[in-house]
TrEMBL record:
One of its GO terms (molecular function) is GTP binding. InterPro entries: G_ENGA, GTP-bd, GTPase_Der, KH_dom-like, KH_dom-like_a/b, P-loop_NTPase, Small_GTP-bd. This is GTPase Der. GTPase that plays an essential role in the late steps of ribosome biogenesis. Keywords: GTP-binding, Nucleotide-binding, Repeat, Ribosome biogenesis. It comes from Alicyclobacillus cellulosilyticus.
Amino acid sequence: MALPVVAIVGRPNVGKSTLFNRLIGERISIVEDTPGVTRDRIYGTTDWNGRSFHLIDTGGITLDGVDELQNLIRVQAELAIDEADVVIFVVDGREGLTVADRDVAGLLRRAGKRVVLAVNKLDHPHHFGAAYEFYELGFGEPIPISAEHGAGTGDLLDAVVSLLPAAEEAPQDEDAIRVALIGRPNVGKSSLINALVGEERLVVSPVAGTTRDAVDTPVEVGGQRYILVDTAGIRRKGKVYETIERYSIFRALRAIERADVVFVVIDGAEGITEQDKRVAGHALDAGRAMGFLVNKWDVVEKDDKTAHRFEEAIASEFPFMRWAPVLFVSARTKQRIHRILPLAQRLAESHCMRVSTSTLNLVIQDAVRTVSPPSDKGQRLRIYYATQVGVKPPAFALYVNDPSLMHFSYERYLENRLREAFGFAGTPIRLSVRARS
């Protein structure tokens, strides 16, 4: 299920990041009493009264900014508004209504979004009368809050949740494998999808997806149905929007939610970047089956060891994803394009693989005999038995005498032994250590 999106916007220094941290419940955004501290959008997920949603913190919007940094901050905020289902418009109740507030209000009216107006920095009910001035912005009843102390945030969240769209579930097609291509802008995601759809043997029909303005494309190869999850489209066209790399992070999050298999697309000519690692990290946290597609391989100067060196670089930069396969492709020349969907099928099968309890325990017992479990202060970890408790990704519970004795390195050793025994290509494995009751 794709979660709705709520963006927090306003002019600089009205308390947007303080409110974001309050609603998320942890200090994620940097908070300083200086305009312009939040320069990029920050993302989190929270819930209220049973409704979960993504929350975006943005930099302060100044429409009269003359320097490039202010313009980029404004563009980031506009992109967040574009993506949002509901916008929390934060103003400063102590300073009162300003020209900058009116400018932001005009921007929101042009965007046509559902808006909840939060009048911040009203720490006591005696001050709530200051909120009435903001009625003239035209966004309904202003909600007085104190982001710093938490006052009024419950009323604010009630208003936000009341405006969220009804929950939508992805269309159910149990036999189809949902495949998302994620990555930085301009690495060739759209070109790869076009190349996949353009194969003459594919049966293609566009079906509207659950995410706004996205189109999921069903294709069929060798009797197996796939759904290509759109991640490439940016609703507001223009060079400045397309060149902001951090915008791809949130697009990736939305695509990951709707996918079974995720391919991280890397530009073979440019190499691995920090942005690639951030995008991949989100898919790993979500427990999706994963692989790497190194695109534009046709323009890379190569010798007989170039591919091997690139694989080593991926293993070094993504040390917790050594199990993810790497495929070198070219959307332009169609090099190895025909291998992508069969690879997705193999990864999906690993992602939902089940193993019998008896076979699982034989593998664990053999691993314990080969390398003894760790000990601490004279007490040694004892693993009594193991069982599989879930799939997508495969999850296993280890019942032991004392979970605190399980060392991270030994847990990783057991994971590697499970991979050796059962394969689990391209999927993370979850291990939970529990005390035997």
